[in-house]
Amino acid sequence: MSSSPMSWADGPMVALDLETTDIDPRRDRLVTAAVVVIRPSRPGERPEVTPHTWLADPGVDIPAEATAINGITTEQAQREGRSAAEVIAEVAALLTEVWTATTPLCVFNAAFDLTMLDAELERHHGRSLMLSGPVIDPLCIDRHLDPERPGPRNLGAACAHYQVRLEGAHTSVGDALAAARLAWRLAKTHPNGIGTVAPHILHSHQARWFREHEFAYADKLDYRVRRMASEGGDAADIDRLKARAADARAAARSWPLLPAATDASRPTRRRLPPRPGGPANSHASWTPDQEATLRNEWLAADPAAVAETLRKDIAERHGRSPGAIRSRLLRLMCDPELPGHTCDEDRAAQLKQIYDAEYGRR
């Protein structure tokens, strides 16, 4: 007798929520944060829930509109909050510890919270947020499952629709817990399409669903632009709608981290988490320092070394796959087949053609 596939919702999860000064994740600042670690207990018992919370002094005034939502005033943040740099560092450090390839991170509207965290890390510590595991975004999943449902799609509305408990709305810990409960409900309600899909695969599905949603939204804005133009609408309003459509298309391929600049002419890159059992930094972006180190390692290598063996050794040190090392070396104009050597454009094109054929790409 075969057992039913296990759902990721029955395993450990982490939930995140941030309350902020406003709604632009690249410009505005963090005020409160919560990371909730959820570990399963024995069958029939409630899971072990461990919340971690922070209050930060954002270093700027908290608008009255934000205070009306999260209840935190500028004076309270200055008096009781810790420096934003310390809070950001601690939140990122805890996520690195508890968010893994087999422990997904539940975030409602992940593109906002994770982009905000990424921007704050860059602002205070000069580094980007590393996706150390897959993301589960109930908003993204809900839009895919029920695209025609009318009404708002905020956390409160989603919890009401799926009959999920939301306590302490607009507090970081309350919203984080609600996001985890909502993710669990979606997994249990839709076991085949959501609950039993491996988290890293579900992450990729959500990236595609987000892209489709943003492009559809941009198309609707384009329709409004054409209609307003034909009716002699205000030029400034038309320009704003055009800018919003361009922003949506620029962001469409970047889930769950929105691009630093929403210029449609700039290519964006979706960041993927490592796969279970795979290299720790698989799919992670390369920093300039990491690229410089890789280039120096390769060019300083013994030319008599076996290229394949050397790539494997370097891959292990960098937490990457040998294939990723080979591809990055080629981008850096190093010859991946000849340790200690660079390559010219003709040689690079030749190798790229060989590698693409190996992977079935054209």
TrEMBL record:
Cross-referenced Pfam families: RNase_T
Keyword Hydrolase: yes
Alphabetical keyword list: Exonuclease, Hydrolase, Nuclease
SUPFAM superfamilies registered for this protein in UniProt: Ribonuclease H-like
InterPro entries noted in UniProt: Ribonucl_H, RNaseH-like_sf, RNaseH_sf
Domain (Exonuclease) ranges: 12-192
Record region (Disordered): 257-288
Top-level division of the source organism's lineage: Bacteria
Name the record gives this protein: DNA polymerase III subunit epsilon
